[in-house]
Amino acid sequence: MPVIVNTTLLSNFASIGQLDVLPKLWQRVFMPDQVYAEIQNGIYHGYVFYEGIEQHIYPFTSSGWLHLTALRSTEEFLLFGELLNELHEGEAACLSIAHHRHWSFISDDRAARIAATRLQVPVSGTLGVLLALVNTEHLSLAQADALLGQMMRGGYYSPVASLNEILP
Predict the structure, then answer these.
(1) What is the value of pTM for the model shown?
(2) Cβ atoms 39, 7 nearer than 8 A
(3) Closest by alpha carbon to 147, among 165, 159, 129, 135?
(4) Residue 136 and residue 108: Cα distance in Å, rounded?
(5) What digits encode the pLDDT tens for the residues 105-156?
């Protein structure tokens, strides 16, 4: 199932220099134009960890695994407009696209996750991505915990100190 991400997930991995782990799970990851605009705004405001992100973005590079997408149907635009009452533009675009195209949504934004559940959009977040990397043996538990620790030291809030606390 295709996945679409908002800025929170990309920020968590980019801020620790680990954006490249995402294509280990998905050949293509989608982000709407609104999320790209948020990233550009972040660069303007000094979030240097976003610099060079274009090297991962298709169509800026033909080998990019992070694909730009846009709202395209009347239904997507209408839901986007409704969601703006409770979400930022990036989350609203992601959810509208995910809902209408039957994609999964990856975000740590609480309000967006609540809306995703209401819209019956499969949703996960940073912890889910780290667990998936462990479960698919792309990372060991120790490596994933090390990444989680780096994120937490950078300001990421996690309800667990180790992924071991939420392993099935």
Answers:
(1) 0.93
(2) yes
(3) 129
(4) 21
(5) 999 999 999 999 999 999 999 999 999 999 999 999 999 999 999 999 999 9
Give the CATH superfamily of 3-126. Answer: 5'-nuclease (3.40.50.1010)
CB burial of 125-163 (b: ≥16 within 10 Å; e: otherwise) equals bbbebbbbbbeeeebeeeebbebbeebeeeebebeeeeb
* 105 sits in which H/E element: strand 104-106
**How many CB atoms lie under 10 A from the CB of residue 26?**
18
How many whole angstroms separate alpha carbon 38 and alpha carbon 35?
5
The separation between the first and the last C-alpha atoms of the chain, rounded to the nearest angstrom, is 22
Summarised one tens digit per residue, pLDDT across range 34-68 is 999 999 999 999 999 999 999 999 999 999 999 99
